[in-house]
Amino acid sequence: MMQLPGGLYIDGVLDKRFLFKPVTGQLEMALSESALLANSLPARVTKILSEALEMLAGDVVSEKQVRALSVGDRQFLMHRLAIHIDDALLWLTARCGECGEAFDISLRLSELPVKLAGDAFPATVVEMPSGRLKVRVPTGDDQESIASVRDDSRAMQMLLTRLISFEITTAEDEVFDLASLDEAQLTTIETAVEAMAPEVASEMATHCPHCEMENRIPISPYGCMTRSVGELFSEIHALAANYHWSEQEILALPRGRRHTYLSLLGRQQGMQSRGNHVDTGWP
Ligand SMILES: [Zn+2]
After folding, report:
1. Whole-angstrom Cα distance, residue 125 to residue 136?
2. Contact predicate 78/226, CB 8 Å
3. How far is the CA of 98 from the centre of ligand 1 (A)?
4. Which of 38, 94, 106, 261 could make an S-S bridge to 43, C-beta 3.0–4.6 Å?
5. pLDDT tens digit sequence for 142-173
6. Pairing of strands 90-95, 114-115
7. pLDDT tens digits, residue range 16-63?
8. What is the CA(154)–ligand 1 centre distance, in A?
9. How far apart are CA 128 and CA 90, in angstroms?
């Protein structure tokens, strides 16, 4: 059973378990079409993970649950999903920040380090002159709610307002006033959040082969969203034409089985065309 670096609290118990569905054409299609169905990157991640997960925290998967996951867990899951689909060696081209020369680096997503959630995850109490504040890690819900805010500093303010509250609130609808915190106090809060938030490495350190300077190469956790469905449509076409299965039936096949049928078809056609070669006399 695979485990999240953070997890979800279900009835007071932290549950880290998750399981992906087998890779089918349906999942590959959902990945590529998610761009059309969601109006922001966080909403797209929610759609993709809801489609790809078989089980989350011991439960059937809902979008609500996927939104409740910490941002670190969601990024971790997007990484794991890319690995689940294909743990290929990725080649990236980077340009050295020092000498400007281009160079290639290779990596496997499964080898990137993952930071587990801290003991306090997902919320902790921070002492401030204005009182004891409860601070929690950001979730997919938080990301989706600020996704449409174009101004970065405004978005950050909205996010912090969502993450910070008084430990003991006197009124139901009491909203924490961010303006009561100075720069240093905000830094203390950010440090507390970082200490407990799970995280996937978002960059990789490597030395430029030309000048030996260390470069930090950004690695997107959302790489699998840019996968193209590639051959999927021609594969559906070949199987539908030969076996007369419906599109839905073909998309539901685990990828390995789809490819087995395709290679059987390919072999059959190869034999036929070899026969033709003899008939026509072509080399
Ligand atoms: Zn260089």
Report:
1. 9
2. no
3. 5
4. 38
5. 999 999 999 999 999 999 999 998 888 766 66
6. unpaired
7. 999 999 999 998 888 888 878 788 999 999 999 999 999 999 989 999
8. 37
9. 46
